[in-house]
Amino acid sequence: MDYAQQQRNPARHWLGLSFVALLHVVVIYALVNGLAHKIVDAVRKPIETVIVKENTPPPPPPAAPPPPRLDVPPPPFVPPPEIPIAVPPPPHAITQVVHTPPPKPLAVRPAPPRPVRAARTRPALDRSSCATTEPDYPMSSRRNMEAGTVVLRIEIGTNGLPARVDIARSSGYQRLDVSAREWISSCRFRPATVDGKPVLSWVAQAYTFTLQD
Predict the structure, then answer these.
(1) How far apart are CA 156 and CA 125, in angstroms?
(2) Is 0.90 surpassed by the pTM of this model?
């Protein structure tokens, strides 16, 4: 049927349009009233989950306890019987007595005598033998206010007389040194001794010159 023939039959054309319009109305109504949701719910079925439980074999029965151990006591100790053994008598021993002379005593050497320390004595001044009891203080030294200590070194002979007089330390003034040396030369000494015998010796003698008010 071509388009020209459809234009000649208008009633049939309007019938088709009415059917299409009615179909749209039905579809819209179904959407509005939730018919589409019911169709979807009817189509979608619930998913059922099935849990399959594994069959576990039963536990084995407990093992039987071991039989009790019986401790057998050891047999009693029986000492062996004592068997006497006959010991043959010893042969006759011949002993010989040997007389050993006692050892000779060791000769003990006497210790050498200790050296005896010699007894020594020092020389000593005998003031009673001097020309005066003290050295002379020169007047010129007093006027010049000279004072000091002189130390003399004296060699004493075996007879107790000064054999030599040296000035070991000066007083600082010659007049005082000479006066002290002349004075000691006029004195006698008790000589030094070794084991009671007089010997030559040296001795130091000091004298101080002091100005007195």
Answers:
(1) 10
(2) no
Distance between CA 133 and CA 77 in Å, rounded? 120
CA-angle at 187, arms to 185 and 191, nearest 5°: 105
Q: How are the residues of the chain apportioned to helix, strand and coil, as percentages rounded to the nearest 5?
A: 25, 20, 55
Token pair listed for 180 = 């002290």
pLDDT in tens, the chain (213 residues): 445 554 556 666 677 777 778 877 777 776 666 555 565 555 555 566 656 566 666 777 777 777 767 666 677 777 777 777 766 666 655 556 666 777 777 777 777 777 777 788 999 999 999 999 999 999 999 999 999 999 999 999 999 999 999 999 999 999 999 999 999 999 999 999 999 899 999 999 999 999 884
Contact 195, 118 (CB under 8 A): yes
The pairing of beta strand 148-156 with beta strand 201-209? antiparallel
Contact 210, 148 (CB under 8 A): no
| 188 vs 125: CA distance, rounded Å | 6
**Separation CA 25–CA 17 (nearest Å):** 13
Which residue spans within 144-210 are E strands per DSSP?
148-156, 162-169, 188-190, 192-194, 197-199, 201-209
3-state secondary structure at position 155? strand
